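Quiz preparation item.
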């Protein structure tokens, strides 16, 4: 009984470290861990074996010390490699996050630009030259509104004034409250109701790039908060983190739905960075489809 207790006490430390090394090695091989991880597991397992041989008297203390110093040197080298690998991994993860975030921002901007281009031209921009020119130089219609519609019915006198605009017939009953269109015409009459003084519903043309991007405070604040920098229209075509060497691809088409022929667009490209460093498959990002008018993005349907 005493011998068993001594054996347990003698070999407990080598056994524990040997078990830890074996489990780490097995886990590393089954889960495709890095070579540094597997090598560190082998060092732990080897140290446990050397310790067991030492306590059993198979090798001398001098040899054990030599092996220990060699193992320590190897462990320091492995630790250095591991630290460098961790730093590289952290940088890669940060770069990937920034790359994907800016890609989503740019694709959303391109969505917005293509929608506005469609409204004005009845087709989507089929090339970067056309889209960039629209963003930088074109204008869009915007409602310039002031005042609110009174929450009351129009009077008979106001009804008679609105007859000329085909909104009522002479003597027609007044059943509902005043509408936006009625308020608009009444505000322009020579006898403008007091509640409609200053009432305005006009359409004005404004710069697309300034209204939507460069002078839009909430938009620019979001860019700055995320570290995306100033809005530059000519940079939208480039996939982030490619040093302006790779561009998003624009494809346009027309699809027949019932009796209607609708324009369609798809803008897509592969990110230069993968979510997991070293992964062979690149991540494709896009918005739009060519077989229907859906403009949703790949980041929206995950």
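Solution:
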């Amino acid at each position: 009984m005493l011998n068993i207790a001594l054996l347990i006490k003698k070999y407990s430390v080598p056994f524990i470290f040997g078990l830890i090394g074996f489990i780490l090695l097995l886990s590393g091989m089954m889960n495709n861990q890095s070579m540094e991880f597997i090598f560190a597991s082998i060092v732990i397992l080897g140290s446990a074996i050397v310790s067991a041989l030492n306590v059993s008297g198979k090798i001398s203390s001098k040899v054990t010390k030599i092996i220990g110093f060699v193992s320590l040197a190897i462990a320091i080298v492995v630790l250095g490699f591991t630290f460098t690998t961790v730093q590289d991994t952290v940088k890669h993860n940060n770069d990937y996050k920034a790359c994907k975030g800016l890609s989503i921002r740019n694709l959303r901007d391109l969505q917005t630009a293509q929608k506005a281009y469609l409204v004005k031209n009845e087709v989507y921009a089929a090339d970067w030259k056309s889209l960039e020119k629209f963003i930088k130089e074109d204008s869009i219609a915007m409602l310039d509104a002031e005042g609110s519609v009174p929450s009351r019915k129009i009077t008979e006198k106001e009804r008679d004034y609105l007859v000329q605009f085909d909104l009522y017939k002479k003597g027609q009953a007044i059943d509902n409250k005043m509408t936006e269109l009625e308020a608009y015409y009444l505000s322009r009459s020579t006898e403008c109701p007091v509640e409609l003084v200053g009432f305005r519903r006009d359409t004005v043309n404004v710069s697309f790039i300034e209204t939507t991007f460069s002078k839009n405070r909430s938009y620019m604040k979001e860019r700055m908060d995320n570290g995306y920098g100033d809005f530059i229209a000519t940079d939208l075509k480039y996939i982030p983190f490619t040093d302006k060497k790779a561009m998003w691809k624009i494809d346009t088409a027309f699809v027949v739905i019932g009796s209607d022929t609708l324009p369609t667009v798809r803008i897509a490209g592969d990110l230069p960075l993968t979510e997991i460093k070293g992964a062979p498959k690149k991540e494709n990002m896009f918005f739009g489809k060519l077989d229907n008018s859906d403009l949703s993005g790949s980041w929206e349907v995950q």
